[in-house]
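Lab manual, section 2.4: Encoding a predicted structure.

Procedure: take the sequence of the chain (119 residues), apply the prediction step described in section 2.3, and record the output as structure tokens. A sample record is shown.
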Amino acid sequence: MNKFRFLEWNVYKDAKELLGFILKIIKKIPNEYRYDLGGQVIRAAFSVVLNIAEGSGKISDKDMNRFFNISLGSLNETLAAADILYFNNFISKQEFEWIYKKIDSISCQLGGFKKKLKK
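Recorded output:
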């Protein structure tokens, strides 16, 4: 078994890509919102990445599943924050749609992992 198997998983790579995109768009929001709103969305997207990695190191399926559930919750938080950014015209429709599609893909991948763990 690969000790750090998450590095090979597409879901991990996609979560990193989402975080990188979030980091880029946060630079564009007004300074007065960057710390609070920007920091929150960065933490949420970072949580997705970290919980995938941490879950991959768990021996029991139950423990792994718990961390994937946390990642799913953080995906919802990231999407809600992106929706707020879009609603307030801090990001474009195209940027919001990219985030939405990436989150949907990551969510489906995590759901696939969870189904396999149940078997």
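Check your result against the sample. The radius of gyration is 15 Å.
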